[in-house]
Amino acid sequence: MDTRSLPDDSASFERLRLLAEQKNAALLRSEERYHKMVEEVEDYAILLLDPYGRIMNWNKGAEKIKGYKEAEIIGRNFRIFYRPEDQKRQIPEKLIQQARTAGKAIHEGWRVRKDGTTFWGSVVLTALHDDYNNIIGFSKVTRDLTERKVSEDKIKQYTKELEAQNRDLQQFAYAAAHDMKEPLRKVQFYTSALLEGIGARLPAKEKTYLERTVDAAHRMQGLIEDLLTYTRISGEVPAFENVALTPLVAEVISHHQETIASVHAIIDMAPLPVVPGISFQLRQLFDNLIGNALKYYHTQKTPHIIIRSTSDDNKHIITVQDNGIGFEPQNCEKIFELFERLHGRESYPGTGIGLALCQRIVQNHQGTISASGQVGEGATFTITLPETTME
């Protein structure tokens, strides 16, 4: 038709009609592409449900995940995908109701395929509305997450077994260490008695052997006591309470007063925070750190220990710094390993359990501990503890 011969109103009408046809055609093409895209998706089961939960359409992903052909499933209620026990608990109905009232329902659980096997499905159910906000149906998107679920369950099982093995190991270590105390006391008693009784009459070589036996027994006693402390700290965690660190650390310092005086050490402690924790464990933590700083002092310097605290990002950051003999920077993690010693037993006594014990205590308090140092320059231990105190 030649629109140039039409009146102006007729020409305008024809232009509008053509424009509407073009828009409708574009909309149809867009809808076709959308439906084609939904139909071809294979990793997700995408369904359209009517307001009562009956299945209205079915894509390739639904066929792949659930096993039904489209002709077998259209018109059936989506309850068919749920196990009998879940149907009895009315989980499908509850999800529909939740989507109806809240607009969306999200759920994960076991679902049933056509062949009776199950898979772990993650479901999003969304209510669909008309122009008057009436619910006209629901979209349902399901993803098969069975591999993830199986992996998570295996990790949980391994964790459970590992925790049980750790408890058994701790109990064994505690029992073994405890049982060794009595025969060790007898070794100490008899060797000390021999040394005091006939030690002066023994040849020098035999006397040296006996003295070494007494020294080894004393070291073994220290190791047993440290092992007992470590297993006790590693066991069940008591209830937390608010612990004021300033008086607690002051008490620890007073217990080291004799050593402090003998090496002329200076201890500079700023006010410390109140933290949620276990009092006796925190006392053990600072006792070990201060004891180490006093033990590994530099003979050519006046020992100086600085204890400071700051707060950042809801955490207390506490540092214990000394100017002692220090250690190689590459050993900053190694020193926390059980029985690890960076210095010879002849010069510095100990069992190598102290810093491992410190790490376990800090872990019990949901915190962290790290170390830094330089040989001849000293060491710094940095502890972070949660800031929140108990009401």
From TrEMBL:
Name the InterPro entries for this protein: HATPase_C_sf, HATPase_dom, His_kinase_dom, HisK_dim/P_dom, HisK_dim/P_sf, PAS, PAS-assoc_C, PAS-like_dom_sf
Q: Quote any Pfam family the record assigns.
A: HATPase_c
Identify the residues that the record assigns to the PAS domain, covering every copy. 30-103
Q: Which organism is it from?
A: Chitinophaga sancti
Keywords noted in UniProt? Kinase, Phosphoprotein, Transferase
Q: Does the keyword Metal-binding apply?
A: no
Read off the PROSITE patterns from this record.
HIS_KIN, PAC, PAS
This one is known as histidine kinase
